From TrEMBL, chains A, B:
Organism: Sinimarinibacterium flocculans
Gene: hisD
Protein name: Histidinol dehydrogenase
Its job: Catalyzes the sequential NAD-dependent oxidations of L-histidinol to L-histidinaldehyde and then to L-histidine.
Textual note on the cofactor: Binds 1 zinc ion per subunit.
Key word NAD present: yes
């Protein structure tokens, strides 16, 4: 199969790598315009707009917004009806995701300054969050667990999930996962109209404080538009993997690891970086051999051809430097002494350490979240986590004596800024 | 002076409070369109666009982008030339901001699961951040300290500051603060063009990983547009204060505390909530008396008339509930036992505890950041802090034995999701 071959020794390496990575997700102007109209419509007409838009976009025949609600018993039944082996796997995954999330909880702090004043930070959970779950072919129960469990661990009061049901169809495993994760309310609603309803509320859909979860271009544009009115997690782009290999792994394993990203979609990015040219050839051969076994071989082939790459580097330090430039969502360190590379990795959403840690473990059950920064956002953002469902308030408590020196400092700077009420308010305590 | 008077016992209380709060900052369509064009122009023409746009919007006469740079010596000179008393105040403020910030540093963690696998989180600083500082009348040295110091404490490699110089004028105190805070590079650049340059880079301006700092409607719209390509802190709205009083504070102090928000601008929001109707009257009288002393009395009067309110409540519990609805940027607890109220405060950017802790301390020198969530964003977001300049990478390291049970779980869920490459990649390690 076709795949880009790059070598850091080549004069055009930088340009070729940049070209491969150049695909920031940007919404077209028509998408933005359509989304703005949908949001305005939902704000103005509430439930009536939701019913109309859902009937149109999801081919439903709703007569009232009440029909959007999926009752708790329906979710319970979906759970009960699940294949016991799958139920067991989901339960084990949920337990591990919860255990990891417990480690992420933010803690407040307080200390006393040299003047006797108390300073600190108070941490509180969000009241209500909205969880967007894509419908149709990309309706993944694992996403429900990954988004809902950290919110529950954070102490969020109410989790509201929306999932479109195109043509009325709903993935029962997604409903079962919502039951397992303890989602409070579920509505069969999708697209920009779902985001607008969660941000502004309608008669039927409660407004939330933050909206998390992936979606298509319309959902992404809607999240960008309502950001500020509510919090959002991030704008999700196509999935990515970088594997750094010393050439000593089974090439068949590495080929399948690359495919596990490639099968997500034709715009997924799967990159292998190795110090061993012969190993790159062996992985290429293993890809040829193994692709035929996959039901999604067609998607994989396009993805690997368009966005896949085998990169030859001089040494593992250079491998880390190239990986840092990519700032991948997922990074596998398939080398002998992976811990030695860790301090050199500056940007990566999740790091899979050693030959026995494939990225797929992280997607389902290792424990850390599978919602990770994409499109180089690992340079500045975080995996989804408990901390995304908590927020901090600064605490300041002055004693009458401790206030005096602060009054002098604040007064002086406020004078310089021409803010006399600030200065006077401070000096009132002097 | 005129101010809204509300009472929770009134039938129309909810409606009147909602009307008072209804002012989510939303950019007009023309602003968005203009900003999109500016961003496209800067991306396409780089420095040439910056020179043109800056000459046009800031009335400059630049001939090359190199003139945008403010050399290190210029900042050093600004610092040296400062009034020693102001220099001392800024130094003390910086020391306190730094000391508080040290407490906010994120820490990584690692633990071993029941199977012998290692799970954890690695924390790293951002490489390069951009700091937007408004120019002209709202050029505040305190903002430079509040934005730059946490980034420095986080370990950010390079801090790039942009500040417009309308008509070539630059506030020397702002430059001095940049010197004190250890800003690495300064450019006299503002508006959407500054945000575009920081997000995409030009020949002269380096691209950054995150852009922080307040700005006007154009800056806010530009930050929203580049979000995803780079990180942003938040979309800043008008300033807000809520004071909860039991009626036993000096009404003149409370009046001036309300004014310290009101003087920021005509759209600032200053709200006093009290259990004591007579105290509300006394504060109103004190406002009448004290406003005349202020150079910005005109702004204060409009702000208090349009967005100010004195709210009578039944008890302090109700005061907290009303405050939680407002989710204010700043909250003063001017009561006898303020600590008893803390657990009841769910949403507030910063909480000023007790009668001797005016909000103005927090603006300058208490230690906690003065960049705080506005427009009810305290429901879901954080004060600016060290954590905004750090990010997390998940860590997963399986042993060959620990991998086997995970392979079974992941394989089974991947089967259910129809992702066979995921399933096979996991099972390769079984």
């Amino acid at each position: 199969m076709q795949v880009h071959r790059l070598d850091t020794r080549d004069a055009d390496f930088d340009a070729r790598l940049d070209a491969l990575l150049d695909r920031a997700p940007e919404a077209g102007a028509e998408v933005v315009r359509a989304v703005d109209q949908i949001i305005a419509d939902v704000r103005q007409r509430g439930d009536a707009a939701l019913v109309e838009l859902t009937n149109r976009f999801d081919r439903r025949t709703l007569t009232s917004a009440a029909e959007l609600s999926v009752p708790r018993e329906t979710r319970q039944h979906a759970w009960d009806a699940l294949d016991p082996a799958l139920r067991d796997a989901l339960e084990q995954a949920a337990t591990r995701i919860r255990a990891y999330a417990e480690h992420q909880k933010l803690q407040g702090f307080e200390f006393t300054d040299g003047l006797g004043n108390r300073l600190g930070q108070q941490v509180t959970p969000l009241d209500r969050v909205g969880l967007y779950v894509p419908g149709g072919k990309a309706a993944y129960p694992s996403s429900v667990l990954m988004n809902a469990i950290p919110a529950r661990v954070a102490g969020v009061d109410e989790i509201v999930m929306v999932v479109p049901a195109p043509g009325g169809e709903l993935n029962p495993v997604v409903l079962a996962a919502a039951h397992l994760a303890g989602v409070d309310r579920v509505f069969t609603l999708g697209g920009a109209q779902a985001v607008a309803a969660l941000a502004y509320g309608t008669q039927t859909i409660p407004s939330v404080d933050k909206i998390v979860g992936p979606g298509n271009a319309f959902v992404a544009a809607a999240k960008r538009a309502v950001f500020g009115k509510v919090g959002i997690d991030s704008i999700a782009g196509p999935s990515e993997i970088v594997v750094i290999s010393d050439g000593a792994s089974d090439p068949r394993w590495i080929a399948m690891d690359l495919f596990s990203q490639a099968e997500h979609g034709e715009d997924s990015e799967s990159i292998l970086i190795s110090t061993d040219a012969a190993f790159l050839d062996r992985v290429a051969a293993a890809m040829d051999e193994r692709v035929a076994t996959l039901p999604r071989a067609g998607i994989v082939e396009v993805s690997i051809r368009e966005r896949g790459a085998l990169i030859l580097v001089r040494d593992l330090d250079e491998a880390c430097a190239v990986s840092n430039r990519i700032a991948p969502e997922h990074l596998e360190l398939a080398v002998d002494a992976p811990r030695a590379l860790l301090p050199k990795i500056r940007h990566a959403g999740a790091i899979f350490i050693g030959r026995h840690t494939p990225e797929a473990f992280g997607d389902y059950c290792a424990g850390p979240n599978h919602v990770l920064p994409t499109s180089r956002a690992a340079r500045f953002s975080n995996p989804l986590g408990v901390y995304e469902f908590q927020k901090r308030s600064s605490l300041i408590e002055c004693t009458p004596e401790g206030a005096r020196p602060l009054a002098a400092i604040a007064g002086r700077i406020a004078d310089a800024e021409g803010l006399q009420a600030h200065a006077q308010s401070a000096r009132d305590r002097a």
